[in-house]
Amino acid sequence: MTDQLTDFVQSGHSTRREAAEARQRAALARLTWETAVDQLVRVGFVKLLRDDGTIERAEVLPLLDQLAEAVTPGGEYTSGGGLGSKPPADLTALSLLAEISTEVRRCCAGHDHPHPAELGPHVDRWAAHAEQWQHDAPEYVCWAAAVANDWVRRARQILDPPRRYTLRGRACPVCRATAVHTWSEDEGDFVRRPALAIDSDRTEVVCGACAQRWPLGAWTALAAKSTPDSESDEDHSLVVTEGIDA
């Protein structure tokens, strides 16, 4: 009887401890969720360091607005003063916006609160559930926090992609491409760049033509496998050059 009573007491302590830990996780997740949504829907601020050493505070658009601008860019002027080619719509940004819209509207379907037509206000309404669901649906709050945080990460990667370093003078061993045309913000037009580049964010070599990737350990093998383009007059040694839009 004593052993059974001890087991019952220990079980009660364990249950209360697990419940307390779950509440703590939900509280932290709610904070993460709300912080991520703030970055998606609210104006942000950055500090700009001027050449004279002064620091200015500037506003930046919410991430959702920046993604929308990336999807529907306008014409830009080239450095020569003429109107350049229209930059391509960013399909990655469009895909992310569609994913966010689908998930938020699915979650809020059937709720009696307003359903704004614009995505930003709707995402804001979605996050407004955080306080109540922290207690009623803690598992969902933890999931929503992870999802919203991932949306912010992916949005920033789209808007400010990691620097890449091009591998000049060799053809892709898969598709044989040696160069690709990519949009350049500096030139306001498409420019020709080497097809192979090092993705420093994922530590991989990537082909801009066929999207084939190789891990870090395959860089040496890539240099051995890739062969020079016989029609090119460039130096065919495998040279790493700095680039952004590869």
Give an overview in words.
The chain is of the alpha+beta class and 246 residues long. The chain folds into 2 domains: 40-159, no CATH class; 164-243, no CATH class. The chain has helices spanning 2-41, 63-71, 91-108, 119-127, 130-136, 138-159, 219-225, and strands at 44-49, 55-60, 164-168, 179-184, 189-194, 196-199, 204-207, 213-215, 239-243. Strands 8-7-6-3-9 form a 5-stranded antiparallel sheet, with no helix packed on it. The chain has a two-stranded antiparallel sheet with strand order 1-2. A hairpin with a 5-residue loop joins strand 7 (204-207) and strand 8 (213-215). Helix 1 (2-41) runs antiparallel to helix 4. The longest helix has 40 residues, at 2-41. The radius of gyration is 25 Å and the shape is globular. Residues 75-85 and 226-246 have low confidence and may be disordered.
Q: Any key phrases for this structure?
A:
246 residues; 9 strands; 5-stranded antiparallel sheet; alpha+beta
Can you write the helix and strand succession as a string? Answer: HEEHHHHHEEEEEEHE
SSE-based structural type? alpha+beta
- Poorly predicted spans: 75-85, 226-246
Report the C-alpha radius of gyration, rounded: 25 Å
Number of extended strands: 9
Mean pLDDT: 76
Helix content: 40-55%
Report the β-strand fraction as a percent range.
Answer: 15-25%
Report how far apart the termini are.
74 Å
Strand order, biggest sheet? Answer: 8-7-6-3-9
Region (Disordered): 225-246
Domain DUF7340: 164-224
Domain DUF7341: 28-159
InterPro entries: DUF7340 (IPR055764), DUF7341 (IPR055765)
